[in-house]
Specification:
By secondary structure, this protein is mostly helical. About 75% of the residues lie in helices and about 0% in strands. It has 21 helices and no strands. The termini are far apart. Keywords: Membrane, Transmembrane, Transmembrane helix. It comes from Aquibacillus albus.
Length: about 450
């Protein structure tokens, strides 16, 4: 019975997500309450298979949230209404695999990966090449690109000493991952920030892209100098693969054209139906992916890859379900009490010094990531804390730091998904990865804060 439930969780999750999306059109109190009621068994079922870290985080949010709920003396029948504020984020995560799948169906990932090893004589050149490749893939297939590029590097660097290989892989892939997500409309941190600050994505885009490029180039300069003295040869007697620059450039241009069209559709749908950014992206992803696959004449591949990937990923959403639903209950309960004002006091106390506020946000992310708190959990609390500051400090500046501070932790969060995945793939200590990438995380956050200060 338990096995059957685990294999078919995607049906249960999807039915709740569809009900929630339907209610965005009908705006029915009955449907909204029904979604809240269903969120409770959804949380309980997911809790059983969530990882230890997320069970701990979820338990803390539920215990503190329930204490705040009791303190606010609200009736118990209001509990379901406190469970739905993060449902748009879960729905958004559930459709992301379809965008990943259309990129895989078009074989863009394989072709771009051929960029990595052609005409590379030392690790300095390989550093830039592998970072650029990871950056491109992450932009379109997100987390799925990380094990893909790490596996390729592991196989091709077997002749390199493990200490150097581990250092190289944990630097180039994690750092490219972090900077690529800064401006991606499919990154959940970006979507949360756009909706909570009320600043349009198009306003954020040039500044986030500028930050991304500056940090990426800075890392390339340092990485190339660090590794350029180490020669590189592909394993075995295989000749280095050659590829057509024209063909690869065409593939990259096709990807960016697709992303541009996707953004236009998101903005049009959002304005037409008066939807927030997260819901607009959620609604557009599947029809856009279907249309793109038909244009490429890759419908059958897309359908096969997409169904398997979506079903598998949705069945493994337990960690995010536990985190988001417990966070929703905590945040909603906190908003009903006066404790939120107490938490806000340190930020309000320095409201005359906007730069200190931005630095406080950055440091909060770093400290929380060190003890295993997911940046989404941190931003869930921070957005409630800094809301009163929007009239005193430019929301665009705060949003820049909310995004860059959160994403920078992907390189140093010892218990985070990306660092843990890298540690497992390369069989190295996650604390060593954290220590190695800390200067980069501080540099990344510093650039984001500097741009935020310029926008004040």
């Amino acid at each position: 019975m338990i096995h059957f439930v685990r294999q078919n969780l995607y049906l249960f999750y999807t039915s709740i997500f569809l009900l929630f999306i339907s209610n965005t059109y009908f705006d029915s109190e009955v449907l909204g309450y029904a979604v809240g009621i269903l969120a409770i068994p959804m949380l309980l079922i997911s809790f059983m298979d969530a990882s230890k870290l997320f069970r701990i985080l979820g338990s803390l949010f539920i215990i503190v949230g329930f204490s705040l709920f009791l303190y606010s003396e609200l009736p118990f029948y209001n509990i379901p209404l406190h469970m739905t504020s993060t449902m748009p984020l879960l729905t958004f995560l559930s459709v992301l695999p379809w965008m990943n799948s259309v990129v895989r169906a078009g074989r863009f990932d394989r072709r771009i990966n051929s960029l990595m090893n052609d005409n590379v004589s030392n690790l300095g050149k390989l550093y830039v090449r592998s970072s650029f490749t990871t950056y491109l893939l992450i932009t379109f297939i997100n987390l799925s690109a990380l094990p893909l590029t790490q596996d390729v590097l592991q196989k091709n660097m077997k002749k390199i000493k493990k200490r150097i290989r581990d250092s190289f892989i944990s630097r180039t892939t994690l750092r490219a991952f972090a900077v690529a997500l800064a401006w991606s409309p499919m990154e959940i941190i970006v979507a949360i920030t756009v909706d909570t600050t009320g600043v349009s994505y198009l306003t954020y885009l040039p500044w986030l892209f500028l930050c991304s490029v500056l940090v990426l180039f800075g890392d390339w300069i340092v990485g190339k100098r660090r590794f350029e003295t180490i020669p590189f040869d592909l394993i075995g007697d295989k000749p280095k693969r050659t590829f057509s620059i024209r063909q690869i450039t065409l593939q990259i241009l096709q990807l960016f054209l697709a992303l541009f069209l996707f953004l236009i559709l998101v903005i049009l749908i959002g304005n037409l139906f008066h939807l927030n950014f997260i819901l607009s992206v959620t609604i557009v992803i599947i029809p856009f992916a279907i249309g793109w696959s038909l244009m490429m004449r890759r419908w059958h591949s897309f359908k096969a890859i997409g169904w398997h990937t979506w079903k598998s990923r949705t069945n493994r959403m337990q960690n995010f379900v536990v985190l988001f639903l417990s966070l929703a209950f905590f945040s909603s309960s906190l908003n009903k009490t006066s404790f939120l004002e107490v938490i806000q006091q340190p930020f309000i106390a320095v409201s005359e010094y906007p730069m200190i506020i931005l630095l406080l946000i950055q440091m909060t992310y770093l400290l929380m990531s060190m003890i295993g708190v997911h940046p989404i959990a941190t931003i869930g609390v921070l957005i409630e804390v800094v809301k009163p500051l929007y009239e005193l400090v430019n929301p665009l500046s705060i949003g820049m730091v909310l995004v860059t501070g959160a994403i920078a932790t992907a390189t140093v969060g010892t218990y985070g998904v990306t660092v843990t995945m890298t540690a497992m793939n390369t069989q190295q200590n996650p604390y060593r990865i954290t220590l190695r990438n800390m200067p980069f995380a501080l540099f990344y956050g510093g650039v984001g804060t500097f741009i935020g200060c310029l926008l004040l």
